[in-house]
Amino acid sequence: MTSTVLEALRGGLVVSCQAYPGEPMRHPETLTQIAEAAVRGGAVGIRAQGLDDIRSIHARVALPQIGLWKDGDGEVFITPTLVHAVAVARAGAEVVALDGTRRTRPDGLSLAETIRRLREETGVLVMADVGSLDDALAAEDAGADCVSTTLCGYTAERPKTDGPDLEVLAAAAGRLTIPVFAEGRIHTPPQATACRDAGAFAVVVGTAITHPTTITGWFAAAVGADGER
């Protein structure tokens, strides 16, 4: 049985409102405005990174928020420790997204221990960002409330597909009893539809909606390829 928060996300679009460090849009007010615009477009939830952004969005956007904190330069950098996870929950995220792979976490805690202690301290829901079917199965065993295919193609287990990893998505949706979110390289509406058809509980889209630098690059490349004079 899914929670009320997760039920609010079922079958919908979650928009990831993030910007890379040093970019012009890297400001809580800007990203909050993007989140507000996503609400008007029909988003059912927001995914955001960093405590300031999470707080700002939580204060102004009345949708469930999946929060995370990217930190460090190691393999595990998405909400890498229990301390990070607790801070994300206390900043206002209804769901805390963290690295849900089977890789060693920087604080030495297992994923199961991290989830257990996070839930005891905050009562928040936990999304495990996974890179493979085996990750997803292990995350469910560890107590995650849901998983997302965020890291498929970004660990050693899977090649980086052109578009979302529908193979892992379909396999996870068919075997797990918890919700499976599609995320990662979903760049077009048809790809989002394909994720839904593969069994996604909900679809998370970031770059194709909220990252104008990348979107501009796609169009600039297309124009340059065909527009040489």
From TrEMBL:
InterPro entries: Aldolase_TIM (IPR013785), NanE (IPR007260), RibuloseP-bd_barrel (IPR011060)
Enzyme class: isomerase
Family: Belongs to the NanE family.
Organism encoding this protein: Frondihabitans sucicola
Functional pathway: Amino-sugar metabolism; N-acetylneuraminate degradation; D-fructose 6-phosphate from N-acetylneuraminate: step 3/5
CDD domains in UniProt: NanE (cd04729)
Keyword Isomerase: yes
Top-rank lineage group of the source organism: Bacteria
Gene of this entry: nanE
Protein name: Putative N-acetylmannosamine-6-phosphate 2-epimerase
Alphabetic keyword roster: Carbohydrate metabolism, Isomerase
Gene3D superfamilies: Aldolase class I
Function: Converts N-acetylmannosamine-6-phosphate (ManNAc-6-P) to N-acetylglucosamine-6-phosphate (GlcNAc-6-P).
